[in-house]
């Protein structure tokens, strides 16, 4: 059986205030065309269909159009909600939509109820695990702790229990939206850290022939059976080096996996350039970026006059300007920036406590309080999105 694995469409999202609706429409055209040309048996969408809980009308229209086109093409589609989606909104009328071959899985309680497809070798059970916010689904899964590993592990126990009751030789696919250990994040994913821990081990998905992951925006292979498709478009300049693709997955009669990356359309390449303003304006090697979306980092010791306007004369699609003046190692601003580099909110908060106490950091109880506060804020935001 042949699947097309994609995720993280983020319909309605812009790129540094530039609308991406046309680019997203072009991707969805490409998706439908690819599904037809490769004669896929199903399309898998592993969450973050929309960019926010209440998407703009134009994004909803794109979603509606692609569902109609996939249904008209006779391509079954299995789709889960991600952490950016409102699960309840996305799941409205899912029972009726299912009659057209579009299977929306947005209710955590239904994670062990698969979509069953059949080929000449037997049944394939496809299980959709929507994004599981630990604090909101802990009671459903009766876990002792409210963490990603605990709730995903409990959901997978239900999946394996259902699979064990099916005919011998039934193959299995799981769709999940999570941060799995070994994955490389980018700047455009929303933080899902709980208690200072974001990642879950890939072993959570043991016993399944293929796990189609969403959440991280770079296409990547955790292992042969656990993969991220990544987002079809770049949503931050940290994705400049990403190759945006979908996975074409062949599931063999005994669960063998063969996967091929299929490129997505690129609306405009991304470029990050760095240097002094006059050098960026004159450097002939940068000519290849003149039609790219550009992020420029200026290293001039003093901020030059009208840098954005001057850069736009050469790079008309420049979108972002960063100032990083050249500094000596002894410069206190330079050392402070280095201390903050690659540190998350929890670590920065602990560093602040250490600073105001003259070098004495928080003890374990205080660390737990800090983690709890950050988790409460994040969960509060999630609850407000669900409430709409």
Task: Summarize this entry quickly.
By secondary structure, the protein is of the alpha/beta class.
Based on the model shown, name its key terms.
single chain, 388 residues, alpha/beta, Purple Acid Phosphatase, chain A, domain 2, six-stranded mixed beta sheet, 32% helix, globular
Describe the secondary-structure layout.
Elements: E1 2-6, E2 14-15, E3 18-19, H1 21-37, E4 42-46, H2 57-72, E5 77-80, H3 87-90, H4 94-98, E6 102-105, E7 115-119, E8 122-129, H5 134-141, H6 148-164, E9 171-177, E10 210-214, E11 220-223, E12 226-228, E13 245-251, E14 257-263, E15 270-275, H7 277-282, E16 293-298, H8 307-314, E17 318-323, H9 332-340, H10 345-356, H11 364-387
Parallel strand pairs: 1-4, 4-5, 5-6, 8-9, 9-10, 10-12, 15-16, 16-17
Antiparallel strand pairs: 1-13, 2-3, 7-8, 11-12, 13-14
Describe this structure in words.
- Helices cover 32% and strands 22% of the residues.
- The protein has helices at 21-37, 57-72, 87-90, 94-98, 134-141, 148-164, 277-282, 307-314, 332-340, 345-356, 364-387, and strands at residues 2-6, 14-15, 18-19, 42-46, 77-80, 102-105, 115-119, 122-129, 171-177, 210-214, 220-223, 226-228, 245-251, 257-263, 270-275, 293-298, 318-323.
- Strand 4 (42-46), helix 2 and strand 5 (77-80) form a beta-alpha-beta unit.
- The two termini are 39 Å apart.
What name is given to the CATH topology of the largest domain? Purple Acid Phosphatase, chain A, domain 2
CATH class of the largest domain: Alpha Beta
Secondary structural class: alpha/beta
Provide a count of the helices: 11
The name of the CATH superfamily of the largest domain reads Metallo-dependent phosphatases
What is the subunit arrangement here? single chain
Q: What is the first-to-last residue Cα distance?
A: 39 Å
Averaged pLDDT? 91
* Percentage of β-strand residues: 15-25%
Q: Count of DSSP E strands?
A: 17
The radius of gyration is 23 Å
What is the helix content?
A: 25-40%
What is the N-to-C succession of helices and strands?
A: EEEHEHEHHEEEHHEEEEEEEHEHEHHH
Supply the number of structural domains: 3
Record the strand order, biggest sheet.
Answer: 6-5-4-1-13-14
Question: What low-confidence regions span 5 or more consecutive residues with pLDDT below 50?
Answer: none
Principal-axes shape call: globular
């Amino acid at each position: 059986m042949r699947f097309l694995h994609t995720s993280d469409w983020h319909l309605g999202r812009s790129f540094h205030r530039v609308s991406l609706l046309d680019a997203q429409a072009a991707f969805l055209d490409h998706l439908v065309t690819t599904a037809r040309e490769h004669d896929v048996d199903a399309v898998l969408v592993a969450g973050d269909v929309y960019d926010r809980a209440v998407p703009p009308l134009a994004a909803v229209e794109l979603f509606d159009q692609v569902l109609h086109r996939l249904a008209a093409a006779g391509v079954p589609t299995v789709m889960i909600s991600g952490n950016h989606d409102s699960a309840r909104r996305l799941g409205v009328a899912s029972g009726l939509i299912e009659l057209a071959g579009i299977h929306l899985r947005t209710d955590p309680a239904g994670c062990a109820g698969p979509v069953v497809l059949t080929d000449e070798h037997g049944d394939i059970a496809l299980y959709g695990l929507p994004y599981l916010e630990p604090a909101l689904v802990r009671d459903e899964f009766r876990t002792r702790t409210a963490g990603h590993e605990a709730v995903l592990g409990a959901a997978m126990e239900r999946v394996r229990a259902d699979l064990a009751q099916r005919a011998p030789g039934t193959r299995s696919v799981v769709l999940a939206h999570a941060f799995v250990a070994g994955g490389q994040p980018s700047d455009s994913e929303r933080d899902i850290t709980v208690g200072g821990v974001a990642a879950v081990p890939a072993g959570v998905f043991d016993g399944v022939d293929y796990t189609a992951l969403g959440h991280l925006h770079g296409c990547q292979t955790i292992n042969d059976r656990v993969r991220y498709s990544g987002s079809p478009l770049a949503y931050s300049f940290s994705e400049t080096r990403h190759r945006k693709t979908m996975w074409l997955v062949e599931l063999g009669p005994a669960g063998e996996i063969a996967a091929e990356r299929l490129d997505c359309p690129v609306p405009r390449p991304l470029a990050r350039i760095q240097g002094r303003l006059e050098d960026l304006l004159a450097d002939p090697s940068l000519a290849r970026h003149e039609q790219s979306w550009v992020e420029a980092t200026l290293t001039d010791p003093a901020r030059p006059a009208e840098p954005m306007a001057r850069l736009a004369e050469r790079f008309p699609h420049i979108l972002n300007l960063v100032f990083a003046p050249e500094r000596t190692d002894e410069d206190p601003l330079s050392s402070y920036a280095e201390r903050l580099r690659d540190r998350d909110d929890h670590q920065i908060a602990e560093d602040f406590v250490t600073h105001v106490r003259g070098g004495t950091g928080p003890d374990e109880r205080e660390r737990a309080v800090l983690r709890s506060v950050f988790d409460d804020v994040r969960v509060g935001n999630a609850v407000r999105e669900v409430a709409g």
